[in-house]
Design goal:
434 Repressor (Amino-terminal Domain), Rossmann fold, 3 domains, 4-stranded parallel β-sheet, elongated, transcription regulation, transcription cis-regulatory region binding
Length: 335
């Protein structure tokens, strides 16, 4: 397949390749007439600059890489929108990869981003990531990186996340205020900080309100609907079922919702249900789901802003920053 180059444009106009290059970049030494001719030929030949070739010259492209667990997850799609808006205004395009919650795929995504000489990376870890040493290559190659939402205590570098502990604490406190005393938690994996922080918020709320922590009411899994399904099945099979379930995120809560409905139980009359992340579908089910808003678009923009600063100033000239955003409790009829 024919791909036009600067040389092709230069040959057609009888100019040097360097003159064409400067014309395409609006260099002040090139006349407006020449710039117009060059751009007309470039448009006719469907010329596009080779970002990889340019990357070899500059040691980077004008592309920002994003690695997320699942693009279909509303939190991540919304965060990506925030990232893209800021990146576009700064003259960058984005390249998105999803790990599909798989550690090995996350490592492949990272190698692909480094090979393509991205200007910087924004990363949210997969639920199966235990070891984060594969990110050491970014420090060695001085590639800017910001981690967002799902982070790990062994990571170095800037991070943007929400106050997961306080968000969970406020939600469980709400359940207690509503009279629920036998509150279960379908938790996330302990290797990712958001799972630990939300479980810790759940535990602290119970302790502070004088309730006993029953370990049989804590079921650990992942962040998908199926994890909510399995968790709810275990909890509803207990000799004394819970009167409320707090789920680590909304997809998990939706999985639990289906099991509760299938077993003929009423929400919230027989059992209350709450999630975390304010997925749009949580407001559409009946009854609507009580949840915690993470302000995902804002998290994406904040992460992109930190990354753009590193790209502009250089990683050695910017100190790592950890931004912790506030959450908002959204009370609906499920509780």
């Amino acid at each position: 397949m024919f791909r036009a180059t600067i040389t092709d444009i230069a040959r057609e106009l009888g100019l040097s390749a360097s003159t064409v290059s400067r014309a395409l970049h609006d260099h002040p030494d090139i006349s407006e007439a020449t710039k117009t001719k060059v751009k007309e030929i470039a448009a006719r030949l469907d010329y596009f600059p080779d970002s990889i070739a340019q990357g070899f010259k500059k040691q980077r492209t004008s592309t920002i890489g994003i690695i997320v667990p699942e693009i279909q997850h509303h939190f991540f799609s919304s965060a990506i929108s925030g990232i893209e808006d800021l990146a576009y205004n700064a003259g960058f395009t984005i390249m998105v990869c999803q790990s599909n919650e798989d550690y090995e795929r996350e490592k492949l995504n990272l190698r692909a981003m480094v090979s393509n000489r991205v200007a910087g990376l924004l990363v949210s870890l997969s639920q199966s990531t235990m070891d984060v040493s594969h990110f050491d290559i970014l420090k060695k190659r001085k590639i800017p990186v910001v981690f967002f939402d799902r982070t790990h205590e062994d990571l170095t570098g800037s991070q943007v996340k929400v106050d997961d502990h306080n968000g969970a604490y406020q939600l469980v406190s709400h359940l207690i205020d509503r009279g629920y005393k036998h509150i279960a938690h379908i938790a996330g994996p302990s290797n990712i900080l958001i799972g630990r922080e939300r479980e810790c918020g759940y535990r602290d709320a119970l302790i502070d309100r004088g309730l006993t922590i029953d370990e049989s009411l804590i079921v650990r899994g992942g962040y998908r609907n199926s994890d909510g399904t399995h968790g709810a099945e275990k909890l509803l099979a207990l000799p004394k079922r819970p009167d409320a379930i707090f789920c680590v995120n909304d997809p998990v809560a939706l999985g639990a919702y289906l099991v509760i409905k299938q077993q003929g139980l009423r929400i919230p009359n027989d059992i209350a249900l709450a999630g975390f992340s304010n997925n749009p579908i949580s407001a559409l089910i009946e009854p609507p789901l009580t949840t915690v808003d993470q302000m995902s678009y804002d998290i994406g923009k904040s992460a992109a802003a930190l990354l753009l600063e590193q790209i502009e100033k250089g990683v050695d000239n910017v100190s790592p920053v950890i931004l912790v955003k506030k959450t908002k409790l959204i009370i609906r009829k499920s509780t």
